[in-house]
């Protein structure tokens, strides 16, 4: 059985595997006509996901190295050309392939914002307010920015938050890492939904923390599962996305949020409430409303306004000590960046941020309607009138097969295993509706997805229909 030697390097794993196939073919280790190992077998032996192997096989076929036969497998072609190098554009940061429609990145749908950016910069310059962008910003962020954030949270989220209890973060991911690292030690367990935001996986893994997935129902975390896991694991932190959960789109009812807060209080849990998608929802009361003394409430501009500003705010319970968080700020980035924060402040002060958010929500509604019309019953029913992502529930193996077919057909989606925390995880495929640059591109992707799910989209790499 062929065992490839995968070179180390910053390029994505699938690219390094393609290079190994080409290299071994060139050196005669793989003869023309050799059947490559089934995806699942090779994934097990290399300790990677099936999705990574699937993508490598698709890329190898695109480059003419292999050919796939339905029901038989993937076979090496004759190789007479030089070994293809890893493309320079894919050294380091992974990007989508040319011609592919990429539905992996959960961003707000594109609307024209450049004019708003220009206007804000001109206004800041005229006011003489750009100077902080050239210097270190100490501590928890500029007070005028945090005052603007308190106003924005009050007007957009319905929460009264004191500016002095806000910490300016370099995006939502920084806020999650800051909360995890400030209140957990290596080896600690963090409770979360059985399938959760991929960024929480990354932060926990980097910090040496364990995620413990909790059983979910149609509303999200079951309170009894939280109570039982808190007792059994000794965990002191819960990370949750109660509104338009990523990836399943579920939303907790007010009663469920209150029940979660009650368990957290009884078990002395600190709650990190990630409310990245609140603007897309019917705006239920947040968990922080039921447990203000123990909830770190995280809001971000990345999912509802502009991801490029890298700006989020962590609202702290008034009595929570800030010293560990301030040390964390210094350790993870030394200080909050100022330029994007000043632009945000200007948008809040002149009232433009509301109009920008409205335009994004309108586009999101149109894209959601398109997706529902194309996929209908295949989609999970979201806990809101719309969502920036759709979830297609299906068994784990079927999700892997569908993803492989989509990859061959020109659509990339998030690997199904990226969000799973436990064996009880709700499995399926997430579609990020804001990622395509236009509605036409999204429509093309939806047509392909519908065809693949309905059986009109071909076969897997290993010939499994």
From TrEMBL:
Residues 11-79 form the HTH gntR-type domain. GO terms for molecular function: DNA binding; DNA-binding transcription factor activity; pyridoxal phosphate binding. PROSITE patterns: HTH_GNTR (PS50949). The keyword Phosphoprotein does not apply. SMART domains: HTH_GNTR. It comes from the Bacteria. The keyword Transcription applies. PANTHER family: HTH-TYPE TRANSCRIPTIONAL REGULATORY PROTEIN GABR (PTHR46577). In the C-terminal section; belongs to the class-I pyridoxal-phosphate-dependent aminotransferase family. This is GntR family transcriptional regulator. It comes from Swaminathania salitolerans. The lineage of its organism: Bacteria, Pseudomonadati, Pseudomonadota, Alphaproteobacteria, Acetobacterales.
């Amino acid at each position: 059985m062929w065992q490839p030697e995968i070179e180390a390097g910053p390029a994505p794993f699938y690219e390094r595997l393609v290079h190994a196939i080409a290299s071994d073919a060139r050196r005669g280790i793989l003869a023309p006509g050799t059947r490559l190992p089934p995806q699942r077998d090779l994934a097990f032996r290399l300790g990677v996901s099936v999705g990574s192997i699937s993508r490598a096989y698709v890329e190898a076929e695109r480059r003419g190295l292999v050919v796939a036969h339905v029901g038989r497998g993937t076979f090496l072609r004759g190789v007479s050309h030089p070994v293809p190098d890893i493309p320079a554009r894919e050294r380091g940061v992974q990007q989508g392939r040319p011609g592919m429609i990429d539905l992996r990145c959960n961003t707000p749908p594109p609307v024209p914002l450049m004019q708003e950016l220009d206007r804000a910069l001109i206004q800041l310059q005229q006011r003489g307010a750009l100077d902080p962008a050239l210097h270190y910003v100490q501590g928890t962020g500029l007070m005028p920015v945090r005052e603007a954030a308190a106003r924005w949270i009050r007007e957009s989220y319905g929460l009264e938050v004191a500016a002095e209890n806000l910490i300016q973060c370099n995006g939502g991911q920084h806020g999650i890492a800051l909360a995890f690292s400030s209140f957990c030690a290596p080896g600690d367990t963090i409770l979360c939904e059985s399938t959760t935001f991929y960024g929480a996986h990354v932060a926990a893994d980097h910090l040496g923390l364990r995620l413990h997935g909790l059983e979910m129902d149609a509303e999200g975390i079951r309170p009894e599962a939280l109570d039982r896991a808190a007792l059994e694991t000794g965990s002191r932190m819960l990370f949750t996305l109660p509104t338009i959960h990523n990836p399943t789109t579920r939303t907790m009812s007010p009663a469920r949020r209150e029940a979660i807060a009650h368990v957290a209080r009884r078990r002395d849990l600190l709650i990190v409430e990630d409310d990245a998608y609140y603007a897309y929802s019917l705006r239920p009361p947040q968990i922080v409303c039921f447990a203000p003394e123990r909830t770190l409430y995280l809001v971000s501009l990345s999912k509802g306004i502009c991801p490029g500003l890298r700006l989020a705010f962590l609202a702290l319970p008034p009595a929570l000590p800030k010293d560990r968080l301030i040390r964390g700020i210094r350790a993870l980035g030394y200080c909050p960046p100022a330029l994007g924060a000043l632009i945000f402040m200007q948008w809040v002060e002149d009232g433009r941020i509301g109009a920008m958010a409205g335009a994004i929500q309108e586009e999101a509604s149109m894209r959601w309607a398109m997706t529902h019309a194309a996929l209908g019953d295949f989609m999970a029913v979201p806990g809101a009138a719309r969502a920036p992502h759709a979830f297609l529930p299906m068994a784990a193996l079927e999700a892997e097969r569908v993803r492989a077919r989509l990859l061959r057909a020109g659509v990339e989606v998030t690997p199904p295993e990226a969000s799973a925390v436990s064996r009880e995880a709700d499995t399926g495929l997430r579609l990020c509706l804001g990622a395509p640059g236009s509605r036409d591109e999204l429509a093309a992707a939806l047509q392909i997805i519908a065809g693949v799910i309905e059986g009109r989209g071909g076969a897997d790499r290993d010939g499994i229909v």
